[in-house]
From TrEMBL:
This is GTPase HflX. GTP binds at residues 205-212, 230-234, 252-255, 318-321. GTPase that associates with the 50S ribosomal subunit and may have a role during protein synthesis or ribosome biogenesis. Residues 199-366 form the Hflx-type G domain. GO terms for molecular function: GTP binding; GTPase activity; guanosine tetraphosphate binding; metal ion binding; ribosome binding. The gene is hflX. Its main location: cytoplasm. Mg(2+) binds at residues 212, 232. Residues 158-192 form a coiled coil. Monomer. Associates with the 50S ribosomal subunit.
Amino acid sequence: MFFERPKSGELAVLVHLELSAIDSPEDPREFEELALSAGADPVSFIFGQRATPDPKTFVGRGKLEEIHSAVKEHGAQLVIFDHILSPSQERNIERELHCRVLDRTGLILDIFAQRARTHEGKLQVELAQLRHMSTRLVRGWTHLERQKGGIGLRGPGETQLETDRRLLRARIDSIEKRLEKVRRQREQGRRARSRAEVATVSLVGYTNAGKSTLFNRLTDAGVYVKDQLFATLDPTMRRVELPNVGAMILADTVGFVSHLPHRLVEAFRATLEEASNASLLLHVVDAAAEDRLHLMEEVQEVLQEIGAGDLPQLLVYNKIDLLKDRGPGIDRDEQGVPRAVWLSAVSGEGCDLLVEAIAERLGEEMVTGYLVVAPQQGRLRAQLHEINAVRAERYLDNGDCELDLTLPRGDLERLLAPYKDSPTAPRWQVDKAADVR
């Protein structure tokens, strides 16, 4: 029911009001892109200004008549508001316009329903839609009377509205239980990666900033890429080998948008947890966007909301191929730590610099030196090879093996812990060992 799409675009009238009571108004260009991404065919774009929204119809009487005229003139089947409408406002506007009305939340939910590919993604979208729909059921059932009973069953009974609310609650509970199972599975995966000391790096950023293109460039994953909002909905993860660091997990996540509906953040908690538990966030920014600073602030707000605001970040200024006087490069802070990377995911310019910067940021706790292991400690030697920590090795005259290592300090301490009290404990040293012990 929730994933059936119309065969062609729907004729839509778009409505955008500038409200002086709102500090950060929506961008009308982004609103139009959202409508196009949903498959709408905009036939009219109506602008207006108000100090505060009208409590009954959001817009005033005159503006409502203007919208009604546009609907009749173009034969539109849909009116989309670039604002969040209350259920009563939505119902009152529909009564006046005699056509379907959709607010910003409903529009984003519709786009998400189209983009969902995995079972988990569809569950998350359906959960968000059901929560949104549960407040608007009265609109669809105002024409029904109370249900009738048979002989001996007559009475007030249960209204159709009450029946639907009960069924919705049951479905919501069922989906939440299934998503809780998904969350537990993801948590098990994160614990396994933590035990193996494999860092997770998550791509975050505003929608259509180029995250999936960059993900494909770094991993050859073949993730769906298109120049549209919310092209990526389902998270994708790939293992990437970094020079002098070892393996990391790179995660591509759903793009953010200004004033992301809160129920969407709640529904996609299982997906967004990949970002909130990352070792490093790659904040991908559209360097060619005129309002990139505002978009970066919007991303930071969502990161704070999901508990990822204080995680280490590396800015990635993408799309430098659209800039005239900017080439690839790394910006560093006063301590020389990479702070931002300028690149083009489409052409590949600067992507090698990003890999270098990630390796530096993740390699802050890396140690390099030589470990001398006895012949009976072959298991330790095999474990070091498994995590790609061995750069070179040689056998000494007495049969011991000298390993040239680069690995995280935590890995080294974890692997050497079982041998701490052994009389032939492996010897860690920065300088090269002698030929005999």
